[in-house]
Design brief:
The protein has 76 residues and is mostly helical. It has 4 helices and no strands.
């Protein structure tokens, strides 16, 4: 994990697939579980999906709340 990966989860959108355009932090658990079973893509997207899967699987999604709020405040 890189130091700013949690922030990226609330800023980046899914670039492909069924949930293209949805924030990485908002991807449903069953979609993340599918990647965990089938294999995460290579590169940054795969790393972020794997991280979001771990957060979701362990019930830690509330960790992203302050980051979401900070990101939302920064938007015009």
């Amino acid at each position: 994990m890189e130091s700013d990966d949690l922030q990226k989860l609330v800023e980046r959108t899914m670039p492909f697939g069924k949930y293209q355009g949805r924030l990485m932090a908002d991807l449903p658990g069953d979609y993340l579980n599918w990647f965990a079973r089938e294999g995460f893509p290579k590169g940054e997207i795969g790393r972020l999906l794997a991280l979001m899967h771990e957060i979701d699987h362990n019930g830690l999604s509330d960790l992203l709340t302050p980051l979401r709020q900070a990101h939302h405040k920064g938007r015009p």
